[in-house]
Amino acid sequence: MNEADEDAMDISENKENEMESRDNDTVQLITSGKTNIQSKTLYEFKPFVFTEINKNSKSKKPAPRSGHRIVCDESDLYSIGGYLEINPVGPGINNYDDPSLLGEKIVFEELYKFNFCHQKWTRLVTKGEFPLGVVSNTTALHGNHLVVFGGTSLPFGEMSSNSVDICNLRTKTWTQLSTHGQNPGGLYGHSMILDELNKCLYIIGGTTGFEFFIDVHKLDLVSGQWEELFISNGNVLETGEPSPRYRLETAFDGTLIYIIGGGRQTSCDSFTSIPVFNIYTRTWSKKDTVGDDVHSFPLPRKCHGLIHTNENIWMSGGENGNELFDEFWTLHLPTMKWSMIFTRIPLELSFHSVDITPHGCMYIFGGVHKIHQEREGIVFKDRTNTLFKMWLKIPPLKEMCWEALLHYDKSIKMLPQNELVAKGIPREFSDRVLG
Which of 131-140, 306-315, 404-413 has the lowest mean pLDDT? Predict the structure, then answer.
């Protein structure tokens, strides 16, 4: 077991005792006979194992897509936007059920919610003006609000957004944040960091479709003031800046922004060293990394997924333009050591989206899962609407108990909240059943 696995699996004895005491009422509920045991299979908690969600469900799902974004809270996953090109090489190639759309290019101006308890997708009807950039934007969850910046639509590159759009998830209402100062301009394929503590966000890199950037902008979410932290002049020797890129991912430790991968049309950037940007000195530097003991370094890639938990970043999939990846890597930031995790994504994926719940369950949705080199060098890409989950850490005991309860008693999610409370379900979980 490598360092990352040990870190993810580690639970201190004190923490375990605390959780057992705090969650005793939930454990007693499962063992007291107050639930209708329906499942004949044994519930097992399995960290670092991918599970396909809703695989055999007949309920309507979002169409296959790429270039969308997802965010998660403790009860729901939200997916915004995306793109689908229905390949003209035969029906069914994209697992899409409308043959009349064969050959069409579709952008999805839509917001979906997937409720973890009900295991069901719902397309949300929203008020206000929907964001213009629905492909390769950046989206973050800030309390009960979605924060969306940038993105593009068809034809790609001819329309790129630089607006900050906010969706109140309680009222399902979109508003556009009023900003001033030097904004980044229209971008897509950039990266965004939401600093909730300091109520600001950072925009890094991206493209207009014609030009690539590695600029860094900061937006104060309270005042609406944009600030240029770094504008590239192309002089690498003078500034130490990395190459401009899009579909990069980033991590943030409060001082340093770590640039993870990305690229341009025909090139991708290496992982043997990681560019870092100091938000206080506004300077670039590089951190050399250490390869995995067996698998060395990840191959250069863009269009991958990334999440950041404490001291580790977790990288999934990606592509180099011709090849898709199903690997799952972690980078331990204190030691800058790469480790390939023993499990792989069930599909090779790029342009997918990934996020993690507050208690450590990672979800991956959609993306490109196959590249076809067809006639006269034309490239076609198959897209998916598959949803995967995988636990990256041991959650509090009450979270495992809640999963077990839903596993054994399928009817409990159909009960009204007053009955759930009467059965002893804690309010924080009965609220999740409301969907």
Answer: 404-413
Looking only at the bridges linking them, the beta strands covering 225-230 and 180-181 are parallel
Locus of tokens 């995790």: 341
Whether residues 283 and 340 share a domain: the answer is yes
Beta-bridge mates of residue 328: 316
Last residue of a domain, one of 350, 380, 411: 350
Give the domain range for residue 299.
248-350
H-only helix segments in 199-292: 236-239
Express each pLDDT in 360-390 by its tens digit: 999 999 999 988 766 556 677 889 999 999 9
Q: For residue 126, tell me if it sits in a domain.
A: no
Question: pTM for this structure?
Answer: 0.88
Type and span of the H or E element at 400: helix 397-408
> Are 346 and 261 within one domain?
yes
Residues β-bridged to residue 275 = 286
Q: Is residue 11 part of a domain?
A: yes
3 state SS of 74 = coil
pLDDT at site 86: 79
Radius of gyration for the chain, computed over Cα atoms and rounded to the nearest angstrom: 22
Q: Taking residues 9-37, what's their average pLDDT?
A: 43
Q: What is the pLDDT of residues 88-104, one digit of tens each?
A: 554 444 445 555 565 68
Domain identity same for 262 and 333: yes
- Rounded to whole angstroms, how far apart are CA atoms 159 and 153? 6
Q: DSSP letter for 292, please.
A: B
